[in-house]
## 1
Amino acid sequence: MSMGQGTVLILFNRNVPAAQPLAEEMAAWLQQQGQSVAISRNDVDAAEVPGLEQAALIVSLGGDGSLLRAAQMAAPHGAPILGVNLGRVGFLTETEPQTWREVLSQVLAGEHWLEERMMLCVTLNRGAEEVCQAHALNDVVVGRGARAHVVRLQVSVDGGRLATYAADGLIVATATGSTAYALAAGGPILPPQLRNILLVPVAPHLSMDRPVVLSEGVKVGIQVDGDEGAVLTVDGAVRAELETGDEAIVAASPYVTRFARVKETNYFYRTLVARLVPRN
């Protein structure tokens, strides 16, 4: 059952009361199986996470937000992620707290498959200066933040002008992100294996109000126009305050997120219905 020299890294969300006790219980069980284990909160810097570089598997305890954080940590190292749902929706997670032993046993025994999900890379430029770069599994959003006004955004695709948006924001999403904020804003649902980029405006005002599905491999430029400024968020976390003239360049990341799955390969549509269709 051992994963050899690799470590099982357990990341837990400290804001979920059940997460840390479950992490400790899981670690004790893994050690009984002869497995090397490390535990960390998921809200620390990746450089402070013990065992990250040696991780053969990352177990995320929390909801989908916890999985997004785990994905950002895991991406440069290629470690697969197993999500245990302690949140409300759990669209990306693989198992519930009641069945983690059975599922984890299957994964450790190699009785699983790896699902790869496309990620985005966003680079923020201010003139000739690169301000920051980040990777996202769900989405990159340029929006108004807490300010009560629309933002004006000049958007290009592969260097050619697409449109000027006046809106609360613009979502640039992966297929994975199409079932998150983009869906709430009226975007379509894309199968997770697609590598297309999805553009969805948020509350557009007298500007293009339809989502756009872009082809694989394109590069999207979003430049802040006007004097209001904007905010750049990556998978729901604020990364930068934007000034007039700032440009966010979004393209496919060289990294992918790998999920360890024991469900059937056609699980997505059943999960979609179970999570999104209200039950009577």
## 2
Amino acid sequence: MNTLHSCLLVNHLWCEVSVRIFWKNIWNYRDSNFYTLIVCLPVESKEILSKNGIIISTSTSKPPMFNYASFCKVLSIDQVHYKLKQILRNQQSISLQNLKNNTYILEQELFKHFFSQGSLKILDLYRNFNFYPEAEECLKNLSELRCKSADLSSEILYQLSQTCHNILSLDLFVDQSTVDRVISKGLTDLISAQKNLKHLNIKCFYMEGGFEDVMSSLTNPNKITKLCLHSMFHCFSLSFIIEFTNLQELELKFNYNECFKDFEKLQYAFFPKLQILNI
């Protein structure tokens, strides 16, 4: 990262290339990146912050050299929440309730800015967010989604199913609360909407059913090349894996041997492209 910073100072071309790399992944953002993004917010957003008494001191008032938000391709909703909360806490003495409210207001304005400017490739979704109209265009080319569906509303999952149809890699954390609330609605809609899903990673804990619903919602199981299943307590039949005829990598991680139910049925299955088997 220090080398990348040095590249910014070489010339304009090196600066432009380096800026795009530096701003690509939000997990690499420092506090200074978020201060810059706040400076870049449109007037309407700054007025909303001002009306709610949210004053962020920044080191510069100069207009930005680049449209930094447009360079972001990897966005984590949770990371944005954490970093903004940290910035607000360090800026001023504030009550816990006001900190919660101000963090929500600030992050919503920042999300609107991201969605209106960029086109995301990877989204980490471990908390709800408001699905603004701008998000539809921003997320339509999403290729990788990592989410904990128990923490997401049915509405968010449904909106994603209507917008994202070309996800290549899907990483799901599914638990009992997911089964109770959204397993038959948004989550299955989202999975069934994918046309070219290649990698599927499911971690399921404390489930007493519903896993089969997730797997049956796959419209093209023969397109999956990497399948990873992790389960702590729930035992379920593995016979469905036979349908994944083009698997190149299969990973099964269960806490108990009893969880390998019907595993013997796979001994006669034919996976001509399988290269990695991790049990």
